[in-house]
């Protein structure tokens, strides 16, 4: 049962990271894939990297 909770939490984190990446103008799919491997490290990178939006 504990392994299932771990995978659910990790999967949720990957979806959150994809949404954060899209909000910053980055590829949600690419960051979703990075998040599967890197997890919380990908979250940190998404947060500290500047947004790609170059509008008003």
Explain this structure to me?
The chain has 56 residues and is mainly α. The protein has a domain at 10-46. It contains 3 helices and no strands. Helix 1 packs antiparallel against helix 2 (28-38), helix 1 (2-23) packs parallel to helix 3 and helix 2 packs across helix 3 (40-48). The chain is elongated, with a radius of gyration of 12 Å.
Task: Provide keyphrases for this structure.
single chain; 56 residues; mainly alpha; 0% strand
Question: How would you sum up this structure in a few lines?
Answer:
By secondary structure, the protein is an all-alpha fold. The protein has 3 helices and no strands.
Mean pLDDT: 91
Radius of gyration: 12 Å
Judged by helices, strands and strand pairing, the structural class is mainly alpha
Shape type: elongated
Q: Output the helix-strand order.
A: HHH
Q: Which percent range describes the beta-strand content?
A: under 5%
Number of E-type strands:
0
Q: Flag low-confidence runs.
A: none
Largest pleated sheet: none
Give the N-terminus to C-terminus distance in angstroms. 49 Å
Percent in helix: over 70%
Number of DSSP helices? Answer: 3
Task: Chart the SSEs and their pairings.
Blueprint: H1 2-23, H2 28-38, H3 40-48
Helix pairs in contact: 1-2, 1-3, 2-3
